[in-house]
Amino acid sequence: MTQRTWSISDLAKEFDITPRTLRYYEDHGILSPERLGTQRLYHSRDRTRLKLALRGKRMGFSLADICTLIDMYDGPGSTQPQLLHYQKVLSYYQTKLQDQLQDLQQTLAEIEVQQQNCELLLSQKKPN
């Protein structure tokens, strides 16, 4: 059975990222493509690890946390310590995102007040 491989441009196109992003993840040990001269061949493992890295990035995870979680994926499976660590990381980022959401909601409320003030001032001014 032949294993499916992808070129750097294949994965970049599939995940809507730049080849530079793939090389970045390679530099940080997340991806380890096979090399044929200057050509990189990515295997299923690389594709899966990329998918996990991009998911972690979307969730706001740091690169260190992404690496740790991906390495857990490559480990012996869903052991209790792995799941507890993952739960701790998820909880940390959930709290962080909730704080950011609260800050954004407060900022949006302040902007709304300023817009209302501007509208009030404009309505009080007589056109020239």
Structure write-up:
This protein has 128 residues and is mainly alpha-helical. The protein folds into 2 domains: 1-61, Multidrug-efflux Transporter Regulator, Chain: A, Domain 2 (Orthogonal Bundle), CATH 1.10.1660; 76-128. 70% of the residues lie in helices and 5% in strands. The chain has helices at residues 8-15, 19-27, 44-58, 63-74, 80-124; strands spanning 34-36, 39-41. The chain has a two-stranded antiparallel sheet. A hairpin with a 2-residue loop joins strand 1 and strand 2. Helix 3 (44-58) packs antiparallel against helix 4. The N and C termini lie far apart (81 Å).
Structure at a glance:
The chain is 70% helix and 5% strand. By secondary structure, the chain is mostly helical.
Task: Summarize this structure as a short list of keywords or feature phrases.
single chain, 2 domains, Multidrug-efflux Transporter Regulator, Chain: A, Domain 2, mainly alpha, 128 residues
Topology of helices and strands:
Blueprint (H helix, E strand, L loop, with lengths): L7 H8 L3 H9 L6 E3 L2 E3 L2 H15 L4 H12 L5 H45 L4
Antiparallel strand pairs: 1-2
Helix pairs in contact: 3-4
Shape: elongated
Radius of gyration: 23 Å
Q: Strand tally, please?
A: 2
Measure the end-to-end span. Answer: 81 Å
Strand content: under 5%
**CATH topology heading of the largest domain:** Multidrug-efflux Transporter Regulator, Chain: A, Domain 2
What does the largest sheet look like? Answer: 2 strands, antiparallel
The second-level CATH architecture of the largest domain is Orthogonal Bundle
Mean residue pLDDT: 90
CATH level 1 class label of the largest domain? Mainly Alpha
Please give the count of helices: 5
Task: Give the topology string: H per helix, E per strand.
Answer: HHEEHHH
Taken together, the total number of domains comes to 2
SS-derived structural category: mainly alpha
- The unreliable regions are none
Strand order of the largest sheet: 1-2
Helix content: 55-70%
